[in-house]
Amino acid sequence: MPGDAIRAALVSRLRISSTISEDDIREIEALPISARQFPAETPVVRDGERATDCCLIADGFCVRSKTIASGKRQILSIHIPGEIPDLMSLFLRVMDHELSTLTPSTLGFISHETLQKLHRRSPNIAEVFWRDTLIDAAMFREWIVNVGQRPAPSRLAHVMIELRERLRIIGRVDGSNFEMPLTQEQIGDALGITAVHANRVIKQLRQEGVVELHRGRVTVLDERKFLELADFDDRYLHQSPTL
Amino acid sequence: MPGDAIRAALVSRLRISSTISEDDIREIEALPISARQFPAETPVVRDGERATDCCLIADGFCVRSKTIASGKRQILSIHIPGEIPDLMSLFLRVMDHELSTLTPSTLGFISHETLQKLHRRSPNIAEVFWRDTLIDAAMFREWIVNVGQRPAPSRLAHVMIELRERLRIIGRVDGSNFEMPLTQEQIGDALGITAVHANRVIKQLRQEGVVELHRGRVTVLDERKFLELADFDDRYLHQSPTL
DNA sequence: TCGCGTCCTTAACTTTTGTTGGAACCGAAC
DNA sequence: GTTCGGTTCCAACAAAAGTTAAGGACGCGA
């Protein structure tokens, strides 16, 4: 993938959530980025590591997660092309969680130094990125609610719809189909349930004719039921500069 | 409470997490703040509201929470004096959650306009505040793990220790005692369990001689058991500028 | 094409958590 | 002091989720 396409995904995403001038866009497009390939299921930045770069997803799916002493793992967020999952490392140098790939991925690295210089030069751009980290936090808040209050089938539906709405922005929803390349084990880690229970829930949603999940691909069978079950309100995604 | 004391709590907290120059501190101390009193259990900023100010806690305890369609409520964080719980509203104008008091509180309001001007004038201060919002997000990540992966007794112990470590910074831990002014209903909302189950868990921890919780006051009975149960690692609080 | 490994699937059983309903306790207001 | 409302506490039962174990599907590489 050429460097231009990588930057384009980022810019198109930022344009949806913030107001950016054409000058600022040129600045962002001029950022030096070094791309690297990662296989599936591979750590990119580890918990406890000191980061020197931020990582822009050019292609592939990634997740952030934390593993506790008992060995249990919690997935905190799912990331798609155009996102910078570890932007927070700019000011929180020592990682408090792990970033890893789900699928084979192309990642672009931008050094903290470069970003900090850019922010000093252009406070507008700094604000756009700051806002991006705040939206990240808003998604964590919703994730807490999901894991803490919703019954398991709703949790799954909610995570699915959140992912779909974000994929839509980058043009990766095909009718009632979209990608969600997680194993049932990983779905369990995302929802705070075991893989066995994740399987039960998936089976139930299939039998009730709500959604079908097969080999990392979601097919919505009944949009109304799906939305109702998920209890989804997209306000927290702040996908409009006026919000 | 005089305005100076309000600012002092904020500054002492920021000094622990970031490196700030004396000039910057003077700038922060010169911020115009208007104080207001709030009774216990009162909303300060509502979900869906458009904020024009940020709110600095001068005295009292507050929580942030979200309520879902079914009526269930999830507490996202507990806040103590010196914190600015809704700093995120600076760039995410429309609130996606609610901020409310737990106890009678004195809150200082700083207008978004004032803060934005300050950030333009001093990028250093902007970075300190940005970092503060990133620490907020780090706490949400840990909260997800807590609710998603830990058994209920550990969840309670973890929330207690997080609160204690933050209270310690502002000098509000008295030996093995500290304040946690939540009802069992609210504890349930924070841990993602029902009030009845919260009561069971509290009883269990008391019977096992770990902690005692009485009328909003926590007394640690066995520090070793307490720490072990909570599975607490303070790295995510980023209470050191080098992290 | 076979064999291996990963993931998916299911069943039986256990544990945790939710639900309902009620009693005891306590502080604030009258 | 008495009453009242909110909290705390508890028991019995129901539902949700975890655990363990095992068979089946599928894709990949030898």
Structural write-up:
The structure is a homodimer of 243-residue chains. Chain A is α+β, with helices and mostly antiparallel strands and 243 residues long. In chain A, the strands form three sheets. A four-stranded antiparallel β-sheet of chain A has the order 2-6-4-5. Chain A binds a DNA duplex (30 and 30 nucleotides) through helix 7.
Characteristic key phrases:
homodimer; 243 residues; 8 helices; 21% strand; DNA-binding
How is the topology of this model organized?
2 copies of one chain form a homodimer.
Chain A lengths: L2 H15 L4 H8 L4 E5 L4 E3 L7 E7 L2 E6 L5 E7 L18 E4 L3 E7 H10 L1 H27 L2 H18 L3 E2 L2 E3 L4 H8 L3 H13 L3 E4 L2 E4 L2 H8 L13
Antiparallel strand pairs in A: 1-7, 2-6, 3-7, 4-5, 4-6, 8-9, 9-11, 10-11
The structure holds a DNA duplex (30 and 30 nucleotides).
